[in-house]
Specification:
heterodimer, A: 355 residues, mainly alpha, two-stranded antiparallel sheet, 67% helix, B: 296 residues, ABC transporter involved in vitamin B12 uptake, BtuC, two-stranded antiparallel ribbon, 12 helices, disordered C terminus
Chain lengths: 355, 296
């Protein structure tokens, strides 16, 4: 493990603090809200970058995993167990410290699962679903894989839209903040803006360091060999199926993590997070970032989501991402950072990310 | 459920199924000549219907439909020429992503041209409330138009691919484009032609179903998913298989709607798709080499 790999990470941390200072001086700290949200979306993009760029497998259903994480956490932390508070199982859960009491906006006392339990369950559930879906689906190739993952995303969308406990078209609102320890919590309200900016970036940095290590390791080399030529990799003894499945699950977990944290940050989640367009948007961002380029995916993930959340694209929001997809595939399939004019800049990043 | 209700549901299933079959045939035409799945196939139907609706305000219905088909056909050719042709040595992943991007762009363009309003063409014969009674079930005359148009499209395509020089040339390209080129077939032009043909058929289908299903800018994608399911179940590239699979899926959906909440009918269709992809990716009606298709 060479320290050099982490120079960009350290530089990134410095940039994050610098950005905070600049926003502070410019008296524009309200931008931090969208930056925080973009960072959570970037978690999905980083995971998808591992899957698409390194393992070479497309997924048009990653918004589904994001939503499974978000919805699980939202349901568990908002579903009021008070009516059953006398029953033995609720009492048992309570005595184990798995439940919390809190007041919602209207002053009603709610007894629900603690966000930690919800977080753990969401991650576990996503992992299991990714395993069950991934086992058959990851054997497919090309259009078949694209359509199968698209189908998975649509099923999640339909289920979210048709199930009463998931709030149907309204989604789930009034999701409580996620308290880590006293004073440190995922909370979208203005007084918590600065700490959430750093919480979100911490999550992103952890995900980046994990991913950078992964692609530089034996696993990363195996994945790249699969991407280059699956038959050749297989004949050299790489268990291609297991590596692809593992990456699929890992990227699903990243997406779920983003879903859980953003849901607590926004205080709500709705079916608009699960549309096909959301999944396509993640694919577009990975494509602009240059497929097998984690730094590119991260930068584009933050930048494009930030612009989109600020409403810069107006009514052309979806069209912009569609246009980006086509333009990238026609003119720069290696990503924006590999366009000759930008190569000097990208060389700095891609060399590091490939080790 | 009495007999008349069964007939009623069966008719609705057959109608929906024949729509899916036409979409699937559109997928097959392009898949056969290029080996790619055109994710923008559903958008062709909506463009066709929307164009016909706009033109029908100033022209009689048959003219409006003709204009819609011609415009969409031209658009299909243009799309191939501008977006597909320049991509040389393209991987399947790249082409898929391009057609996905195209479907988004077309949809967004339609949103800006025709806004979010739900529109529809007038009924070809009769009105929204006129109906025929067949075996105790009430059937809109438009349903017969849908069934008739589907049958004519599939039959005409079969004849075209089997007996005309151009149709044979297209099949030759699908089989082995290098060999076809050596025989003097312009394979580039055949790809353009397949996009035009599939767009034109899509536009015609969009016009015929518009009175029954209504038309909105974002209805293309769900239709494309169903059409793809049908194309896969019937075996990619197999038009007769697509018809059978379309009727199968339509009837299955009618059964689901008659027994469960309508919201779940899409879920059932997608589960069918996933099951077929996993267990019989070559389709229900073909005995192809499974592994060969998986690597296609």
């Amino acid at each position: 493990m060479r320290l050099r790999t982490y120079y960009p990470v350290i530089a990134g941390m410095a940039l994050i603090v610098l950005l905070h200072v600049v926003l502070r001086v410019a008296d524009a700290t309200y931008y931090m809200t969208q930056i925080t949200m973009s960072a959570y979306y970037a978690l999905v993009v980083i995971g998808l970058c591992l899957l698409m760029g390194y393992a070479g497998q497309i997924s048009l259903g990653h918004a589904g995993f994001f939503a499974i994480g978000g919805y699980t956490s939202a349901v568990m932390t908002t579903y009021n167990l008070s009516p059953w508070s006398d029953s033995s199982w609720v009492g048992g859960l309570d005595s184990l410290g798995l439940l919390v009491r809190w007041e919602d906006l209207y002053g009603t006392e709610i007894l629900s699962f603690s966000p930690w339990v919800a977080f753990g369950t969401a991650i576990l559930l996503t992992g299991i679903i990714a395993l069950i879906i991934g086992m058959p689906v990851i054997r497919l190739k090309g259009h078949y894989l694209a359509m199968a993952t698209l189908g998975f995303g649509l099923i999640v969308y339909r289920v979210a839209l048709g199930t009463p406990i998931l709030g149907r078209a309204d989604g789930i609102s009034n999701v409580p903040p996620f308290r880590f320890i006293d004073g440190l919590q995922v909370n979208g309200r203005a007084p918590f803006r600065v700490q959430n900016y750093y919480i979100a970036w911490t999550a992103v940095i952890v995900a980046m360091v994990l991913s950078l290590n992964l692609v530089r390791s034996r696993v990363g080399r195996a994945l790249r060999s699969i991407h280059e030529n699956e038959e050749a990799a297989h004949s050299l003894g790489v268990n291609t199926y297991r590596y692809k499945l593992g990456t699929f699950i890992l990227s699903a977990l990243f997406a779920a993590m983003g879903g859980v944290l953003l849901t607590h940050y926004n205080g709500s989640i709705g079916p608009s997070e699960v549309t096909v367009m959301k999944s396509v948007r993640y694919v577009a961002i990975v494509a602009v970032g240059g497929m097998a380029n984690l730094w590119g995916a991260l930068i584009m993930g933050i930048l494009l989501n930030f612009l989109s959340l600020r409403g810069v694209f107006g009514t052309f929001d979806d069209a912009v991402f569609g246009g980006i997809l086509i333009a990238m595939m026609l003119f720069a399939p290696q990503g924006l950072l590999r366009v000759p004019e930008l190569r000097a800049f990208s060389a700095l990043l891609s060399r590091r990310s490939h080790g | 459920m009495n007999f008349a209700q069964v007939v009623q549901y069966a008719f609705s299933g057959i109608t929906v199924g024949s729509i899916y079959a036409i979409v699937a045939v559109g997928f097959n035409i392009i898949y056969n000549t290029t080996g790619i799945i055109n994710f923008a196939q559903g958008e062709f139907l909506i463009i066709g219907a929307m164009t016909a609706i706009s033109v029908s305000r100033i022209a009689p219905l048959p003219v409006a439909i003709l204009v819609a088909v011609v415009v969409t056909t031209a658009l299909g050719g243009l799309i191939e020429f501008v977006f597909i042709r320049p991509v040389k040595k393209a991987s399947v992943l790249r082409l898929i992503i391009i057609t996905i991007g195209l479907s988004i762009l077309i949809r967004e363009a339609m949103l800006h041209i025709w806004d979010e309003q739900v529109r529809s063409l007038p009924y070809f014969t009769g009105t929204a409330v006129s109906s025929l009674t067949i075996l105790g079930a009430h059937i809109s005359p438009q349903v017969l138009w849908v069934l008739g148009a589907s049958a004519v499209i599939v039959a005409a395509l079969t004849l075209f691919f089997r007996y005309t020089l151009m149709g044979r040339a297209m099949r030759a390209c699908a089989d082995d484009s290098m060999a076809a080129r050596l025989c003097g077939v312009n394979d580039r032009w055949m790809v353009t032609l397949s996009f035009m043909l599939s767009a034109g058929i899509g536009a015609l289908a969009g016009c015929v179903i518009s009175p029954v299903t209504q038309t909105q800018y974002d209805m293309g994608a769900p239709l494309a998913i169903k059409g793809f399911t049908v194309a896969i179940v019937g075996g990619l590239g197999n038009s007769m298989g697509a018809v059978a699979a379309g009727l199968f899926l339509g009837l299955l959906e009618a059964l689901v709607v008659s027994q469960f909440a309508a919201a779940y009918k899409d879920v059932v269709a997608i589960i069918v798709l996933l099951l077929i992809l996993v267990f019989r990716p070559s389709g229900l009606f073909t005995r192809g080499d499974v592994s060969a298709l998986r690597t296609a």
